[in-house]
Amino acid sequence: MAKRVEDRFGSVAELRQAFLAAVQTPAEPIVSLDNNLATEEIFPPVRRPLSTPLQPEAPVPMLLVEQQRHRAASNEALVRGRQRNTDDIRKNRLRTTEPIYGQQGRRKRFTLSILAVVLVPIVLLSLLVAPRLLGISLFPVGVPLLGADPTATVSITPLAKNINDAYILTASPQVSTSDVTTRVIPDRTVSGSVTNSRTVPTNGTSLVPGVQARGYLLFVNGSNSPITVPAGITFTTTLGVSVQTTQTVEVPGHQNGQNGTMTSSSVVLNTGSAGNIPVNALARKCCHGLFVSNPDQFTGGADAHLVHVVVQSDIDGVRNQLSSALQQQVLKQLLSKMAPGEVMAQQPVYTTAASSDNPVGSQANQVTVHVTVSSNVIVYNHTVAGALAMQLLHEQASQTLGTSYQQRGTATVGVPHVVQQGKNGVIYLSVPVREVWVYSFSAQQFSQWKQSIRGMTLDAALVYLNAQKGVEAVQIHLPFGTDHFPTTVDQITILAV
Q1: 217-268 pLDDT, tens per residue?
Q2: Would you list the DSSP string of 22-74?
Q3: How far is it, in rounded angstroms, from Cα 466 to Cα 469?
Q4: Domain locations in the chain?
Q5: Helical pair 443-453 and 458-466, crossing angle rounded to 10 deg
Q6: Are 389 and 199 in contact (CB under 8 A)?
Q7: CB atoms < 10 A from the CB of 326, how many?
Q8: Phi/psi of residue 347, each to 5°?
Q9: 108: DSSP letter
């Protein structure tokens, strides 16, 4: 009998009938060993031999018989009722030859169906669109719908030339507009000035010499004759201070009952405050019977001492401290006065001036220094200068290259720099400028080229196109599966890149 189910049954219907017949047929009863057969009938006991063998024999192994406990039964019917089959129906479940799919299997089949419905249109759409949009095709030109685009594309890179030059322009405050003929642009001068002050202690010192005290002496004449006192006579006070007359005087004699008197200016011989003698520090008789005294105190005597004076370093120190900040303020002031588009012709040159309330060498404990920073700078409009330079280069390129070339993009203007500075605010600028000019192809040229290359092979078309005037490089894209250009002009596209 065949082991495989498909070999024993011709169809599923035959298998089903066989299965139902097997299930409906009653099972044959199995006779219990406990009730019908004795143990000795199944396994007879081992008997002893009738005679003793001449040679010793190996003992016969005893057959082990399972000891079974006999259950008591009231009657034969009860025993018969306990008879059972050898197979358990619970362990022999129904089976079919086809695999049984559960909920997971149905879900898997549904997912695969959805994917097939979605992916198939996408693949077909990609095959239709890719040749037209991306130039990618899996089929040659002749295949309907899915065939490659029959158009041949030629990309022409035109010949490009870089034109550059540097032009000398004159910037003058005497003009208001630019002139391409004279190459002149306007400029102007911007001024700025800032002042600040600071008070600082003086650092200089000076020794002031002592000063002599001054006063006058009174001479009294009690005689009848006048007496002359010459200049330079020295008198000594009770304090030891020497006083000397500085003028010659004549003291009149006694008249009308009164003594004659006369004063003479005098000075203390030694300097210092000790010469400030008090009243009547000198009172005694002197030459020719005259009486001399100082009715008033001598004053003006002073001792030698050090004093603070203004030196140049005091002024320079304040100037250096304030200059940097003042220059930044002047720069901001200059920038605020400049119009949009204007630039400085050169960096500002600053002028710094300093003054003080006390001159250098004067005695003072402190000094106030005023610092002023100013600058004048020439400015011009760099946009105007660049436009004039571009106009000059454009005229030069047009005359040199002719009408076959056209400018591509915008010109690049470099940073102008001053080559020379003239008088009265006139400066000379060098302005570099660069432009790119490319060869311009006409529609008539493209039409003529299409007529010439239709039906050509790739190599022949490359040789022909590279030989044309103004062509820098050629790139050709033929339809998929072809090695030559289409014979129809409408299927040839020429582009300038």
Answers
A1: 999 998 889 999 999 999 999 889 999 999 999 999 888 888 999 999 999 9
A2: HHHSPPPP---HHHH--HHHHSPPPPPPSS--SS--PPPPPPP----PPPP-S
A3: 8
A4: 152-159+440-496, 210-303
A5: 150
A6: no
A7: 21
A8: -65, 145
A9: H
